[in-house]
Sequence to fold (277 residues):
Amino acid sequence: MPRDTRHIPAPLSPLPGATGVMCPGVVAFAGSGPGDPDLLTLKVLKALQEADVILFDRLVSAEIMALAHQGALLEDVGKEGFGPSMAQEEICARLVHHARKGRKVLRLKSGDPSLFGRLDEELTACETADVDTVILPGITAASAAVAAIGQSLTQRGRNSSVRFLTGHDMKGFADHDWAQLARPGEVAAVYMGKKSARFVQGRMLMHGADRATPVTVVENASRADQRVLSTTLDQLPADLAAADFGGPALTFLGLAPRQHAAAALPHTRDQTQMELA
Ligand code: SAH
Fold:
């Protein structure tokens, strides 16, 4: 056997890390993942343990906030769907305020901070105020949700691209390239898609989508109370209304769960309700 001469990197330093990830006066924008603390990156865990102040969104789970340093100042700036929330300008002002005091500031968003989290607005506010920033990525909801249904976001011969969409934007229901999305084999992950389900269905059908197109909705992906609804484009609004999902939910257009996925996941075996189409 030829000897493997590849460089083997040194093991990761034990937590808390010898080299910190947070710096005084710098704002770290971090993703907390979809909710399961085991899906935090080590870097974000270190940041939680080092931060002086943490500004977090409503979808960051309580289990994750419990990992924060005991002495850290926690500010709930909860922004979720249509609920009450702190104004964006106020959040930006708080970030700058804390950084200027020389604090290690952690801005914690659910999933990955770069997806549907208004990251750019907060980055711009920091830049304008001459405050340095760093971005610590996280696992986005679509990754956790697709894992929950045992599927792949892309598949050779089916779809060589995948879209991440929002169901609504500042102006109301969000418009997209429906003609493209309606084509057979297309896959899209719809964030904030519960209220827009009927709108999405209407647009897709108007552009020629097959009524039998598989649609899967994963509520509370990666969490103990995860639930999966498997339906079709035709039945989506009715089935979603009947499921009455109260938690965050991710809708996949063009994907059905693999039949054996739920049973194979020990922590979802009991809680997952799968209605296979
Ligand atoms: N930055 C986040 C998305 C924020 S937008 C990310 O990368 O995941 C908020 C939307 O994300 C929710 O309305 C829902 O559609 C989705 N979402 C977040 N966490 C989720 C979870 N655990 N399960 C299902 N969907 C989730």
User: Anything to note?
Assistant: The chain has two domains: 26-136, 141-276.
